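Question (not urgent): is this output format expected?
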Amino acid sequence: MDNVLEREDDFDEVKAIEAAVQRLGAAKTEIERIIFGQGDVVERSLIAVLCGGHALLVGVPGLAKTRLVATLGTVLGLTENRIQFTPDLMPSDILGAEVLEQSTTGERAFRFIKGPVFAQLLMADEINRASPRTQSALLQAMQEGFVTVAGEAHDLPTPFHVLATQNPLEQEGTYPLPEAQLDRFIMQVDVVYPDREAERRILLETTLMSDVQPSPVLSREELVGIQRLVRRMPVGESVVDAILDLVRSARPHENPDVDGVIAWGPGPRASQSLMLACRARALLQGRLAPSKDDVAALAEPVLQHRMALTYTARADGKTVKGVIAELSGKI
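Got this back:
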């Protein structure tokens, strides 16, 4: 009898995965109708949301990062707010503040006015143009799901995702994000220039009189259900071992080959992020379980912002992406 029940549970799980694959395929198609020429960026951004995490979009201005986040919010059925980070932005501009109000009877009381962080999808635009103090205001929100103002905790909406855009650090007026905050992002998505054909399509379709707008595909409830499904997907022992081998090999005290190359490596949160991301990628591509190919494909976006090279390695021309490629090639 127990075996029959297990088979029925497995059958229900497979049906749920197949239904989720169809819905996600429709959502991805709708997003790519608005954002074209950035297939990898769209996929990785969706993966971050399906994991219930946050993503850091890095690229020069003008590559549709802001439009991508706005499109994701509409298509996935999430309420969205945007914060334009500037050097004079204060933490209270993000979290909110208490104001003193006086009633008609003369009584005075403090009332909390929510900041823009109270949204299901928060777009932190050009996050590295704000001061480190303001950047850190997002730290508790991203990790704990609530913010504390004047000693009182305020819960954030569910789900809560931060998709932050960042300009390359070489540009004027940027502040590097602290390592503790970088680790809160499940992955870093590099947004590169489109190829010629994609840019040609951009020219033709975005300079018309009427701008194309995305349509909702998923609801909040559907998205939350799919996020739970991602965490229930089975992962084989070989994939688990591949994740552990990869992440641990990027730590200099555990891998002699990278001594003198990597200054500091990824922690256990990187392993957790890679495990979730592999599950989400498998689901997005219509598979019932992740494979080692998912580990290799997601190694760079999950690890690159969680490790740093030594000065000597940088002087020798090595890059973080190159080191990750070498390590992931061995799994």
